Amino acid sequence: MKKFINIVSVLVFISVAVLAGCMGGVGTVAVASAVVYYEAKKTHDIAEVELNAKPEAIYKTALDVAKKNPEVVILDQDDKKMTIEFQKDGKNGTLKIKAKKDGISLLTIESKKAKEGEDKTPDLVLEAVKRICDEMNVQYKVVKR
Fold this sequence. Notes:
Shape: globular
CATH topology of the largest domain: Alpha-D-Glucose-1,6-Bisphosphate, Chain A, domain 4
Number of helices: 3
CATH architecture of the largest domain: 2-Layer Sandwich
Distance between the termini: 55 Å
CATH class of the largest domain: Alpha Beta
Strand content: 35-45%
Number of strands: 7
Helix content: 25-40%
Radius of gyration: 20 Å
Order of helices and strands: HEEHEEEEHE
């Protein structure tokens, strides 16, 4: 019986260690995952994702991603408010980052729909959020609203 209890104790310890590793326990590398909510409305598109990161880190990554892409023009940026106005292929977008609680930040990107006869950049906001998540090594899944 004592041997059985020892084996069960070892198995429980291993299970807890593996679970702690998946949750980002001490000394482990964990890949965060997130849900990107995407909504295409009549007048605008919007994508939102909550990330387990400081707003400043997300903002820096967003700026780096925008600057690396020659198709993106930064029209305006407010480092204090952590907002970026940008343009890609003639379509404007707005990126905003807000701190929430417990180290979670909300990244929101919104763009107006192209007018009739204008070239459309499909899913500009979704593409931007995906690039930021990829750069931050965040796994994500897209959920359409």
